[in-house]
Amino acid sequence: MNDKWIYFFETEFDVFVIKPWCMIVYLLIGVFCFCFIRIAGPKVLLGGYHTNLEQYSNDEISVLNIIYRIISPVVFSYFIIIVLSIVFSIIGVRWEFEIYWMPVLFYWVIQIVVVASTKIGIYPLWTLFVQAFVSLCVSIYFDWVVIQQFPNRGIESLDQSNIGWQVLTGFFLAASYLVLYGIIYSSKKYKQKLYKHNNVFQYSIDVRTEERLYKYLRKYDNLLSTRYQSDLLLKAFFYTVLTIEDSNRPSWFRRLERLFFWTGKVKTTGIMQVKENRKLTDEESVHLGAEIVEEIWNNFLYDVAEHNSNDSLPMLMFSSEYYGYDYSSMKDALLSNGSKLYGRYCGTLSYDIRAVLKTTIFFFESYKQFLPAKTVRVHSALFKNQSSLLPNRILCFREGILSVAPQYVPIYNSRIIASITVDAGFEQISSCVEFLEQYSYVISIDYLTSLEYVITATANDTSFINSIPVNLRQWKFTVLNR
């Protein structure tokens, strides 16, 4: 055999030269990489990090997820080894690392064991073995070319024109797409097992996720306000945020954050990662985080209400003490805008939370009932200010105009339209509404969409228009007969 190949095998595969304490260090590095790679994923991939099988599709971000999972243990483990080597050199400790790819092997052993024990039947294990093999090949190649050859050959060792580099690159890309195909295929098969043939349920949930959500409910549900118990989608969105934040900052990591909070470098603490001037327990962060989520949900409902474009079936209706919405339509709106809502919570719009949100919604749809409610009604003063203009009415917004819900509008012979420029002041609206309500039924108030305030009322007798009070003479009144 060529002397070069003999030297290569002796350098890269003679595991007997590794000392026991060095093996322990390699194991610890592998454990650290296993924990850190998942935490760093959302940051490295700018929110495109996939945590569920159903998030994978035949797109660029899914390929990047696989590439990240293959490359990251190599990068992180070698970085740690280099840092440790520098530190040992500075403090004068004689320590020589051998077989640099060993931490990568430990990482993949841990990964395969964890997946095999928690996601058996869901995740295709053969794709993990392919990823592990490619990752080890990259690690060995990097060790041979950079660590072993660079001191003697310098920059020439990084020559990308050599045949080894080209073969490894081609093999790497081919393996990445093979893994992606396997994951997508396995995901489809798993969904087919869970989906009902009558298509009643649109989403699925795996056992591990279900157990986690039940654990959250037992531990934190009593900390939430009563509104969370009646607004199903608010609750689903909250537990989606909780799930993501818990995944990004596991319990052991949160303990470290609380431990080092005194340094001033830790800005957010607790399972909900709330920013406070004191360190928070998980329970305290849930209490504060729920208030933040509720405020985000309030703003979302305001937007949904004001942008309603359905003349006959408004998605959301409200009064001074209640609001209610069509569940199916609001769920679609939440799924379409969920990442934006989460962006308001975490500070960036780059995260795609749709897969987690779908799973959480499915869980709560099935939690206490067989079929989701058609409508949701919530006791809340959320729309108290809007309702103050027309108290004791069921209201909605239609094309941005505050209106009585269509099904509650009485049928009279005539309509009265009163208008005034916005320069007159908002308080003029209350005076005009009070006057019209004495003789007619006010059905809409437009104070958002134009440079005029416009009030529309309906009545059978419009003769009262001939006796307009002095304080309303600035208003223009028009009568339209049917």
Protein described:
By secondary structure, the protein is an alpha+beta fold. The chain has 3 domains: 3-196, no CATH class; 207-379, no CATH class; 410-481, Alpha-Beta Plaits (2-Layer Sandwich), CATH 3.30.70. The chain contains 16 helices and 11 strands. Strands 6-7-9-10-8-11 form a 6-stranded antiparallel sheet, covered by helices on one side. Helix 4 packs antiparallel against helix 5, helix 5 (125-148) packs antiparallel against helix 7 and helix 12 crosses helix 13 (327-346). The protein is elongated, with a radius of gyration of 31 Å. The N and C termini lie far apart (101 Å).
- Structurally, the number of domains stands at 3
Q: Which percent range describes the beta-strand content?
A: 5-15%
Query: Count of DSSP E strands?
Result: 11
Main-sheet strand order equals: 6-7-9-10-8-11
Unreliable residue stretches: 196-202
Radius of gyration: 31 Å
> Helix content range of the residues, please?
40-55%
